[in-house]
Amino acid sequence: MKRKFIGTALLTLSLLTSLTPLSSAAADSIVQSETVSSETAKLLQELLRFDSTNPGGQTLALAEFLKSKFDQLGVETEVIKTPSGQAHFIARLKGNGSKKPVLLAAHSDVVPVERKNWTVDPFGGVIKDGYVMGRGAMDFKGGLSVFAQAVMMVKENNVPLNRDVIFLAEDDEEAGEYGTDWLAKNHWEKINAEFALNEGGWIFQDADGKTTQVNITTRDKIYVSFKLTAYGKPTHSSRPMPDSAIKSLSLALAKITNWDTDPTLNDQTREYFLALSRTAKEPLASHLKNLAESKDPAKAREAGKKVVELGSYPLLWHALMRNTVAPTIVQAGVKENVIPGSAEAIVNVRLVPGSTPFEVMEQLQRVIADPGVKVSLASEMTEEEARKYYEQRTAALASSTDTALYKALEESSKSVWPEAEVVPALFEAGTDGAAWRDRGVPVYGIYPYPLDNDTLERMHGNDERISVKSLEEGTKMIYNTLIKVAGSD
C-alpha cells in the first residue's frame, strides 16, 4: 500500500509539473549555457536531457544512449527491460578472473520538478557559472556520469584487470517495483560482485572551497512511513462541525512539525561526530565532542542544538544525530462543498540503526495527544511481519572498512584531496544497496564530488547543480580507485 499510495501521488505531481511552462528566466537561460572541455560534464549534460522522471520517465532511452557510448569502445553491454517498460543498463569490462568483480551502481531515474521555480530548463543540460544544472545533476546523474566516465577511461587506457568491472545504471531507485531488488531476484548473476559502490557519502567543502572531509557510507538509515488517520462527521460545508477530521489532522501535523526527536547516536555516528570534531574549529569542535561523548540526554540535546546552529551542514548533521520525522503527503476531501469524514497523512521517518519504528510510533502518539488520530504503519505488512522485517534491518551490520574497495577509496581520496580526512559514515537517507547487502556483499556509498551546503540543499529541490570542477576531481578519484582495486598488480 505504501508504494501504491506514494506512487500515485508522484504520478499526479509528475503529470502536473510536466505541463507547467518554463518561466521566462528558465527559457532565456537555455541559450546561455557555457561550454566546457570536461568529458564528464559533457556526458552529464547529455544524460540530463533525458527526462527520466520517476514514474514514467525515459530510462529506456537513456539506457540505449549509454549502450551506444560503451559499444563504441567494444565493451560488453546489455539493456534489461522491466515489466513497466523502463530499463536497467549493464556494462562489463572483462578481467582475467583471478578476483571477483567490483560493481559501480548509479540510478538513472530522478524525482519530479516544479518547473516554474527553476531559473533554467531542468532537462536542458545547462552549464551556468561553472555548474552543470538540471534535475539529477547531483542526485544521481552526476554520479552516474562520474562512474561511467571512469569506467570508460579504464577501457580507453587498456588497463589490464584482475577482476571484472561492472557498471550498472539502475531504474526505479526513487520509487517503483522494478529497482535493484527486482534486478537481483531475476538477474543476480549479472550484478554479483565481491563489493559494490553506490551513492551515499558526502565530500565536504569549506567556505574557501577546500575539501575537508570525505565520507564513505557503510550503512543507510532505516526507512519507514507511518499513516495518520483522523475521523469526523461528514456534512455540508455550510455547517462546519467541531469534530472535523481535517481540523484534527491539521492540529496533529502542527504538533509533529514543531517537535524534534532527541539525539539518538549509535557507535557509528559517535565515531563520525568525533571525527568531525578533529577538523572543526572552536567552539564547534567542543560541541561535536560533547554530542558524541555525553551520557546525559540533556547535555547531548544542548550540544546537538549548538552543532546545528554553528555547523556548515546543519540539516545533514541534524539528520545524522537523530531519528527524523517529516510529514510528506496529505489527503482529504472529495468535493469543495463537502466536509470529509476522514483525513490522512503520510509521515516519513528515517531511523538510526538501533531504533525501532514502534518506539517512534509511540512517541508520535504521545506528541499528537489525540486518541481520535490513529498512527499506523503505512504498509501492507502485518505487525508480526513488520517486527521481523525491521529486526532484520536493524541487525544488519555496516559494511567492513577492511576490504580492498574501501581501502582503494580511502587512498584515492587522499591522493586527490590530501588535506581531507576520510571517515566511514552513516547515510542519512536510503539507497537501493540492500539488494547486495542482503546477500552478504559489502556496499559503500559516495557522492563522488566535493560540494558546499548550498549545493547539498538543492538536492530534490530547485536549480539542482554540481560544479564542473567537482565532477573532474571526482572522476579522477573514482578512476584511481578502479586502478587500485581492479588493476593487475
TrEMBL record:
Record's signal peptide: 1-26
Keywords, alphabetical: Hydrolase, Metal-binding, Protease, Signal, Zinc
A Pfam family reported for this protein in Swiss-Prot or TrEMBL: Peptidase_M20
Domain Peptidase M20 dimerisation: 223-373
Top-level lineage group: Bacteria
UniProt-listed Gene3D superfamilies: 1.10.150.900, 3.30.70.360, Zn peptidases
InterPro entries given in the database record: ArgE/DapE_CS, Bact_exopeptidase_dim_dom, Pept_M20A, Peptidase_M20, Peptidase_M20_dimer
Family designation: Belongs to the peptidase M20A family.
Name of the protein in question: M20/M25/M40 family metallo-hydrolase
Organism taxonomic ancestry: Bacteria, Bacillati, Bacillota, Bacilli, Bacillales
